[in-house]
Amino acid sequence: MADFRTKLGRILRRSALPTLAAVLLGLGHAAALAQAMDGDGGGAQLRGAFPPDTGRYTPSAPVPGPTLPANTTVVPRKAAPDSGSPTSGQVKLVALLTVDGQRIDQGLVWRVYEALRDPRAPSKLLMTKREPSPTVSLEPGEYIVNAAFGRADITRKIVVTPGTATSEKFVLNAGGLKVRVLVDGIAPPANAVSYDIMSSERDQSDNRVRVLAGAKPGVVNRLNAGIYRIVSRYGDANAKVEADVTVEAGKLTEATISHSAARVTFKLVAQAGGDALPDTQWTVQGQDGRVVTTSVGALPSHILAPGTYSVTAKSTSGVFKRDFTLANGDVAQVEVVMQ
Fold this sequence. Notes:
Strand 12 and strand 13 form a beta hairpin. The termini are far apart. By secondary structure, the protein is mostly beta strands. It is about 10% helix and about 45% strand. It has four domains: about 35 residues; about 80 residues, Immunoglobulin-like (Sandwich), CATH 2.60.40; about 90 residues, Carboxypeptidase-like, regulatory domain (Immunoglobulin-like), CATH 2.60.40.1120; about 80 residues, Immunoglobulin-like. It is built from one helix and 21 strands. It has a four-stranded antiparallel beta sheet with strand order 3-2-5-6, with no helix packed on it. A four-stranded antiparallel beta sheet has the order 10-9-12-13, with no helix packed on it.
């Protein structure tokens, strides 16, 4: 039996060698194929002599986009305008004193407004320029432009076309007015006199329109050409002078206003020549009964036009009254005696 088993083992070993060699050869070919497909030559583990599925040649799954709410409105993006085809227009603004072409080179204020179809609607201010001749860039359309030179101004409409450069001239027909004020032939103290400039036009109540209030003597005021009324006041009461002047375009008009006035001081006394009583209320009236001025104090002082007046002094002791007359250039003191 032992000899039989020994012989059988030899036979099996001899017959398995070719088969085992074939199996090993097949494994070698499979390994080489896997190495060629992988391309990196190392590290790949084989399963049953086939190369692993690396997924290199499998297309990726699509990535889902964002989910928008049901009530979202998608607005497509507009293409940017071609920078080589500008749509705005360039406008140079020029102001002239007169039609002859005297150019204004300082003191100008330009205001550009949006032109509205409804004339009753307030205009929207788009820009303000303070250069003498600015160049502004505006979108195509209509605009309202105001050029102001002191109290002289002009307003008109301009039209801007796309991609063009134009020049707009504004003729203000402006001139200057300088007022000199004298009181009894000499210049008054500083800040003692001021005047208003009124236009020749009148409102619905037949009153003149005030162009400039509180103007000071010796200052040049720029105005549109035309006729104006000067109302000058010396002091705080009724020393007032009115005069008409004509302003011509491109010229300086000088006017002199002469005041006639008197200065008066009031005092309430218990007896003539006595001390002034404090806390006294004063009322000055003209001959027509109209109140000229009022004040409170022991020694109030006023500048009045020459004429006849009545003054009333009211204190804790009672009400006292006196009439008086002033001449041009007077410097007077009026005592009201309590009696």
